[in-house]
Amino acid sequence: MTLAGLLGAFFAKGKPWLLYTPSSTHSGDGLITTAFVNSNHGACFLAICTLLGVGLSLKSDRSRVFRFGVVAATIVCGVGVVLTLSRGGIAALAAGLLALLLLGYRQKNGSWIPLFVAIGLLAACAAFIPAVFREVSNTNVDKSALWGVALDMARQNPLFGVGKGAFATTVGRYLDPSIGMTASYTHAENQYVHLMAEVGVVVGGLLIILSAVAFVRWLKKAKLDFTTMAAAASLVAVAVQSIADFGLEFAGLAVPAAMLAGAVAAAAGRQQASRTSRGMTLAALAALVVAAIVIPVSAGQDAFASALTIKPGTSGWRRRARQVIRKHPADYFAHLVLARHERDHRKALSALGRTLALAPLSAAAHAEAARRLHLLGHRSQAILEYGLALRYGRPRRRLLERGVDLSRTTRELQTLLPSRPESFVSAIARLLRTRRFKLADALGRVASRRWPAHLRVRITSITATSSDGDRPAAIAAAKKLVASNPAVEAFRLLVRLLRAAKSADESVWLRKASQRHPGDVRFASDLARILATQRKYDDAISILERVKPYLSRPAQMAQVYDSLSQIHRLAGRLHRARWESQQARHWRQRAGRTKP
């Protein structure tokens, strides 16, 4: 399997056994492609092979040629685990080697060969270590996102779960909107949590506990030889891999794991396998190898995966999509794909109704329904659907802007917007950009009553009041805001409003702002500019000199020296103005050198 994957990496990338191209590939594919297609499952299988190879290589009753061949195959399989770039597979192999080392030490006949194998694998894979580190540090793939959803399913169905095999068809009702419902989720990416979600906390928890207890009891009773220790270590590797995977849901890993468990149990019972049973075991293994090669080739492409790439307008796309729905009637994503491709708005809404019946929290379905309803002229219902899409999905600026543009009253805007201050701020900003000042002012007043202590809400609301033409009320509100929350943004808002009103109080409030925030260059520069126009040059220079010790960025220093140069030039001090200008040029050069 590993050798075929290595050859495929050069001659037939993405083709298991160099023979066929699977209908869908795993997003985390590594440097090689195994017959499991999913790199995590392939890594787990190769980890089992590596550990069993270590156990066989330690048996002293075999010929040197046999042991040499086993060691070579073991190294190849171990390198294959690393080349899959599966974080879970690499962790499983490490846990298995550690377990094999500890079991050998417990039996007093242990060998350090597992440690040497681990060191040898690191040396053999030295060229691929950077790629492994990049994959390990990859934060784009968060497998734990579905664990909370599966636990919620288990909590709501503690006795019998949602039913074995029903996870994919029921998860839509439990999905957390923050995960993003733009794909089908068939497994919980955690075997233990997945089991409890499908069969219940009681049954699933008992199965997990009893399996662990049985495994420990087998190890205590058995007089382990090297091959049995390797089988036990392989089970440990599978258990570790199952924390972030669901490989035991497939026969390719479930059958070998069951056979390994049987071998450990037989060793605990001190049962001697007969020649006949050994022959039957070898025949079963041969049948599994043949099945692993033949079945994927004869299975062909999966209809559902191919339907997701259908382009509307191509011949027979609607017929193929409906075939997928007949095959997967409870998969909400299949209905959503059909709705997105459907040109008839009413037929699309019918498919979206089935989507939302299966996944009521799907933000993508609500957004598509809102678009179709708007095109059909149902404005109020479209606003409602846009609101649901914003509540159940991640904040999306385009959806919010579409909903705000459709809304005509404050009531409709409150129906649209989630109860979050950031949403109201974004909506008011959109209304101001589209010059709907009265509606922006009304929505700002609603937001201020709802979140009176939120700085951005208050600033946006006051800005809307000023844009609506009531500048005195905006200035009064800004003064109250500064009194309750003297932040830099509040002072800047008040100064901006006073400047727009050409009020004489601007210099008074600028002085207060400079005293409150002595390190702010903008306040100091504006105040110095006003004092310079009043011919109070020494006061202006004093203001700028006092702000220097607070500055750390070269660009800010350049700005201060520019202002000083202008003031000295206005005061007739040309020599000092040239010196200040040289300093400003020096700091600008430093700012250019320190740019990222």
What would the keywords be for this entry?
596 residues, 70% helix, mainly alpha
Tell me the fraction of residues in β-strands, as a range: under 5%
What's the helical proportion of residues?
Answer: 55-70%
Low-confidence region ranges:
271-277, 291-305
Ends distance: 47 Å
Query: Based on helices, strands and strand pairing, what is the structural class?
Result: mainly alpha
Per DSSP E runs of 2 or more residues, the count of β-strands stands at: 0
The overall pLDDT average reads 77
Figure out the total of helices. 31
Largest sheet: none
Shape: extended
Rg for CA atoms? 34 Å
Report what the structure shows.
The protein contains 31 helices and no strands. The model is unreliable at 271-277 and 291-305 (pLDDT under 50). By secondary structure, the protein is mainly alpha-helical. The radius of gyration is 34 Å and the shape is extended. It has helices spanning 2-11, 39-57, 64-83, 87-106, 113-124, 129-136, 147-156, 167-170, 191-199, 201-221, 226-241, 251-268, 275-299, 303-307, 317-327, 332-341, 345-358, 363-375, 379-392, 397-406, 410-416, 421-433, 437-450, 455-467, 471-484, 488-500, 506-516, 521-533, 537-547, 554-570, 574-593.
